[in-house]
Specification:
Length: 121
C-alpha cells in the first residue's frame, strides 16, 4: 500500500484491463499517409457500443477492435462531417470512410500538405 500523499506518484499511468493499447506516437496516417502524430479513431464510436442495434450487429471484439491510427486533421474532419450513429452504422470500415466523397476529397487534399500542417477549422 502506498503511503498517504504518495499515491501513484511517479508511476506511469496504465490503461485499464480490456482497453486497447495506446496509439503509436507517430507514423503514417491510415487515411492520408502523412507521417504525423497519430490518434486512435474508433470506427464504431465507444458511445454506440451499448446500443442494442450495434450489439446485435457486431461482436464485442469487433466493437472494441475496429480502430484506425489517423492524424489529428483527418480525425477532426471525420467527426465534423458525420454523427456517431452514422459512423457506427454505415462508416465502420476504412474502405467505407474513404468511399465518402467528403472524406476522400479531404484526404486527397491533406495528403499533399507537408507534415505538421494544420488546416483552419
Amino acid at each position: 500500500m502506498c503511503p498517504p500523499g504518495n499515491r501513484h506518484r511517479g508511476s506511469p499511468s496504465k490503461s485499464s484491463p480490456g482497453t486497447p493499447p495506446e496509439a503509436p506516437a507517430s507514423g503514417p496516417c491510415e487515411l492520408c499517409g502523412r507521417h504525423e502524430r497519430l490518434t486512435r479513431h474508433h470506427l464504431i464510436p465507444r458511445k454506440q457500443h451499448r446500443r442494442r442495434r450495434i450489439r446485435r450487429r457486431f461482436t464485442r471484439a469487433e466493437r472494441e477492435g475496429r480502430l484506425l491510427q489517423v492524424c489529428r486533421p483527418c480525425h477532426d474532419h471525420i467527426h465534423r462531417q458525420f454523427d456517431e450513429q452514422t459512423l457506427a452504422e454505415r462508416l465502420n470500415t476504412r474502405e467505407a470512410l474513404l468511399a465518402e466523397p467528403a472524406i476522400r476529397r479531404f484526404v486527397d487534399w491533406i495528403a499533399e500538405r507537408p507534415p505538421g500542417f494544420q488546416p483552419r477549422r
